[in-house]
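Category: protein sequence paired with discrete backbone structure
Discipline: computational structural biology
Format: plain text, a pair of labelled lines
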Amino acid sequence: MRGEGEILLVSTYELGHAPHGIALPAAFLARAGFRPAALDLSVEGFDAARVGRARLAAISVPMHTALRLGLAAAARIRAANPGALVCFHGLYAPLHAPLLEAAGAAAVLGGECEEELVALARAIESGEALDRFVQRGAPSASLGRLDFPVPLREALPPPSRYARLVDAEGRERLAGYAEASRGCLHRCRHCPLPAVYQGRFFAVPAEAVLADVAQQVAAGATHVTFGDPDFLNGPGHALRVARQLARRHPGVTFDFTAKVEHLVRHPAVVAELASLGALFVTSAVESLSDRVLERLAKGHNRSDVFRAFEICARAGLALRPSLMPFTPWATLEDEIDLLDVFESRRWLGQLDPVQLSIRLLVPPGSLLLGDPGLVLDGLDEAALTWRWRHPDPRMDALQRKVAAAVEDGASRREDPAETFARVKALALAAAGREHAHVARPFSSPRAPHLTESWFC
């Protein structure tokens, strides 16, 4: 089992960036004396030779899309190498443990699970029974503190194969990826993190984070995405990392993710992060309806959203919102209001059109299960979510039309302003209202962004 390639770490999708779900487990395994191989199916073809050498194929599933692709990858791996054991690990693995075990997974690992992956490799090497790695009853995840090594990226394709930063002038730059913390302190009801992490977060030692950044800068990256679920869960830790990044790598910029409530609570931190090189922050605005935000337990309201945009604008930092316009509690009037506000406030240059189409996912284990506002139609195992119907059929029909319009616009590389205009026309038509002309929203270049749009 210690031979090179006998453990194969597989990634299918991580938002266009180099997969942390390979780099970090690779470092844990290497520290234990293993020599894992890697296969990133988002940028590489299916390599039958690498698959054929594997005794263990560990598939990283940190998000919904990755899990859907991971199930297909597992089937291909078994067909090419029937003797290989398949393991799923990452945020979405424990949520879907029964499905994955029924699909033949030898192990399902989640949470702070890298040492468990090492233990699995050792058990396979020694011929031990693997029963302890199979979930029994309610899905569970490891939440012990880990001794984090520096992620091992040598087996991954170079940064040029992944998403790039597009700056305010439209120039592309190589981008890296790092995580300064894991888990989350909060319990937003629609988010999968609370179901796994139960309101806990874990800081990664700053030196390990900075060493990871340094190796990516040496490979040509001049921008780094901090992909923590919330960079400001620990604002002091975030500032330590950002200050050292600016000192050691002058000119290297970064982006991060943070909750609206944290942006509002820590304006001085936001301003300092911008001064240290932050170009934009991704924040889960989700909705402008206080009713919807309360049902989702987001921890912010409509007024907070306006304050967060203002705080970021004063700091010279673009706020790039993620949205969830289609939930059981959102009305058609909410949808039109959201579109009106983004147009009138000239926020459209900070928005990826895909965000206008997002529909609530309700995975197994979701904190939303049992909510009286959810009309469920059963578990869709293929789609990995509970099916639900909106009480207003116009909203379900509109979501399908918006998703098709956004997908069409992306395939044709349509100006996002034109996509927005089409979405607004669809919303107004659904409400039986006359379509008004949408003003050209981009009076200046689009805000800095990555070439891969955010969605789960």
User: Anything to note?
Assistant: DSSP finds 16 helices and 16 strands in the chain. The domain at 164-450 is CATH 3.80.30.20 (pyruvate-formate lyase- activating enzyme). The longest helix spans residues 393-411. The chain has two domains: 7-133, 164-450.
